[in-house]
Amino acid sequence: MQMSREHGWGLAGYRRGVKARGRPSVGDVYRLLRDRFGPAGWWPAETPFEVCLGAILTQNTAWANVEKALCAIRSRRLLSHRALFRLRHAVLARLIRPSGTFQVKARRVRAFLDFLESEYGGVATRMASTPLGTLRAALLRVHGIGPETADCIVLYAAGLPSFVVDAYTRRVFGRLGLLRGGESYEDVQRFFHDRLPADAALYNDYHAQIVHLAKDVCRPRPLCASCPLDPVCAKVGVARA
């Protein structure tokens, strides 16, 4: 395993003492979250193709809405590349309507289906054999796929170590004082890549821990008293009681 500049650990060796003073390291944050929540596990999907579809449908909407769309597709036994690839735009749009902006997303799903067909014969698992940088660059050329969606597909569908950055990541690490705010997506991702081993399982679990924390505790109005990071958090931008 590649060793981090900051730590020498992965999922199996994440336990070490948390710093008593100063700002927490990226490793400290992960240990505290995992100690509180345990292994998180993510992405909620049964196949790599379902991961890809969910990653596109979740753009600008809550996951509950994505689940409704996926349920509609699954109930009609259409949750595969082969089945969706044959559908007309209007039919596909109706199926994914619960995910919001369904006309836009139908075009994005179609673009990804075309990409998967032309590059991998419609088989999502084949993406895992492509070098990370090559796959990510190819995904970014697909209509409607930006860095976050591309990294979700690279990490959760292909199993390659590309850290996913989202609004939750920015909120949590901004409040910790580890991000200034305003950094580009690439700068935030590099912040994690420079401090963690290039380990897909670690990136998977770490991102899931962040999502769990931000949804349930580190909300827009945070519940700091119940936060596992409270002892090490600078609370940047958080109103003092």
Helix count, per DSSP?
A: 11
CATH topology of the largest domain: Endonuclease III, domain 1
Radius of gyration: 19 Å
Mean pLDDT: 92
| Uncertain residue segments | 1-15
Largest sheet: none
Q: Looking at this structure, what is the CATH superfamily of the largest domain? A: Hypothetical protein, domain 2
Beta percentage is under 5%
**What oligomeric state do the depicted chains represent?**
single chain
Q: Percent range for helical residues?
A: 40-55%
First-residue to last-residue Cα separation: 44 Å
Number of extended strands: 0
| Overall spatial form | globular
Q: Please indicate the count of domains.
A: 2
CATH class of the largest domain: Mainly Alpha
Q: Helices and strands in order, then pairings?
A:
Blueprint: H1 26-37, H2 48-57, H3 63-75, H4 81-85, H5 89-95, H6 102-120, H7 132-140, H8 147-157, H9 167-175, H10 185-193, H11 200-216
3D architecture notes:
This protein has 241 residues and is an all-alpha fold. It folds into two domains: 16-41 and 163-232, Helix-hairpin-Helix base-excision DNA repair enzymes (C-terminal) (Endonuclease Iii, domain 2); 48-157, Endonuclease III, domain 1, CATH 1.10.340. The protein is 50% helix and 0% strand. It contains eleven helices and no strands. The longest helix is centred in the middle third of the chain and has 19 residues, at 102-120. It is globular and about 55 Å long. Mean pLDDT is 92; it is low at 1-15.
